[in-house]
Amino acid sequence: MKPTPDLWHKYTADYELITVKDKKGRDVKEARYIGSYFHVKGSPGAIRTKLFLTLACGIILTALLVFIQLDTHVTAWTAYVAVPQTVALFPLLYLLMGLTSLPYKLKPMERPFYMHGIIRICRCAVAILVLCGVSFAGDFIYRAFTKDWFFRPEDIRYLIILGGILLLAVAILVLLNSIEITERHNPAVSKE
Fold it and tell me: What is the sign of the dihedral through the CA atoms of 63, 73, 124 and 89?
């Protein structure tokens, strides 16, 4: 009987414990993966190009989001502009962790790698998109309330960089959603 996965043990249903002999002849319990594999479909060249473009977008997005934290502009200290923009650093950290788990060698992925790679990046890109979109809208809300529609050079730079962050998050989503992934059952399990 397979255990039902919960929050702490999400992928336990994809593994089973088996007993094997070690080098000294002792019985040792070992986890064996019995879950599905996720395969990337398409020509390897096109897939690698999309994955490396995703990586490039992620690196540029990181640089822009870190730089925008250091930039000063009229709404830099307004809570509904600064807080969402600062909170966006957390999904950015997870996005960077997900970029390291992408299938650059195009090997079939086990469920944990698929979830920590492609799915994590998509969720983080959406979170960054929403949080930075709130900051973008907050800038105009601030200007509407204060009736300060004079844009200084640093304000224009801020809005251009924030717009670039939004475009890069959308580009990451489009690139990853254009990669077709198929789920196949583990052949080792179906033979038994």
Answer: positive
Q: HSE on the CB side for 41, CA within 13 Å?
A: 7
What is the mean predicted confidence (pLDDT) over 30-41? Answer: 86
If asked whether residues 58 and 140 sit together in one domain, one would say: yes
Backbone dihedral region for residue 72 (phi beyond 0: left; psi -120 to 50: alpha; all else: beta): beta
Report which of residues 147 and 190 the model is more confident about: 147
Query: What SS3 state is found at 17?
Result: strand
- Residue 190 inside a domain? The answer is no
Q: Is residue 25 part of a domain?
A: yes
- Which of 13, 20, 57, 59 lies closest to 36, judged by CA? 13
Which stretches of 43-179 are assigned E, i.e. beta strand? Answer: 109-110
- Residue owning tokens 């009229």: 74
Give the domain CATH number at 79. 1.20.120
Checking if the pLDDT of 192 tops 50, the result is: no
Q: Are 173 and 123 in contact (CB under 8 A)?
A: no
Domains in the chain: how many in total? 2
Helices then strands, counting H and E runs in the chain, come out as 7, 5
Residues of the domain holding 7: 1-34
